[in-house]
Amino acid sequence: MTAITQATPVPNRAASALLKRVLSNAALTVGLAIIAIIIVLALFANWIAPFDPLHVDPLARYQRPFSGWHILGTDELGRDILSRLIYGARFALLVAILPTVIALLIGGAIGLSAGYIGGAWDSVVMRVFDVMFAFPGILLALGISAALGPGLGSMIIAMVVVTIPAFGRIVRGVVLGLKEELYVEAARTLGYSHTRIALRHILPNVLGPAVVYGTLQTGRNVILSASLSFLGLGPQPPTPEWGQMLSSGRTAIATAAHVATIPGLAIVFLAVGFNLIGDAARDMLDPRFNKDRS
């Protein structure tokens, strides 16, 4: 009789190695867990939230956490804080991630072209960035948001403008070193076009530092967006946005501290989650940093 052998599934070694590496990094694991929880809350808010986040109940104003049906209490209008927090996760993730992605694309393109082309174009770009760096980021964002008017769109535009110079300078610095490498000189010798050299040979090596900084910048954007909303330049009431919730709760901080404390803690947790991921990504993608620490 012919022996019949069953093929056993071969595990994906690359995926297993990556998972093992992720789990071995405590900071990365915690950061991913925090972000994953908030993403789940944002995606399934319609099913998870126990109440309508816009429902007003004047008879239930300033209820304390665990004092009734409202697990995290109610705000100054009797709205359920937990429900508003869950729905607010959508805005928190949007204003943290979207400006970072847009700024990475625009700033990265400008920095790549400035570093590779050099000359007058590089000088003009760097002088413009220097002027923008002369202003504190929060003040520049405040000025742009105030000029455009309060709202989600103007806040995102302000955050993008503030973030572009940092991405541009980082990418430019990496490109200045890469364009002198031997493989780039070899590509020029072979007659490859400048566009092909920039996109095929230089860009892939720029993505690592840019993505690491982008992850860290996402955490900063959480604080920046909350600051703008706290000052009334973000989404307007009754939108359930964490910064706006923090602002509305400050008037009752002495008598109902939970109204401001709970959204404030949510902002901190989200920022910490992105920062932990950014720190871990830097450790994994930048061997020189690990070497310096050892």
Automatic annotation (TrEMBL):
The chain crosses the membrane at residues 26-49, 91-112, 124-146, 152-171, 252-277. It comes from the Bacteria. PROSITE patterns: ABC_TM1. One of its GO terms (biological process) is transmembrane transport. GO terms for cellular component: plasma membrane. Gene3D superfamilies: MetI-like. This is ABC transporter permease.
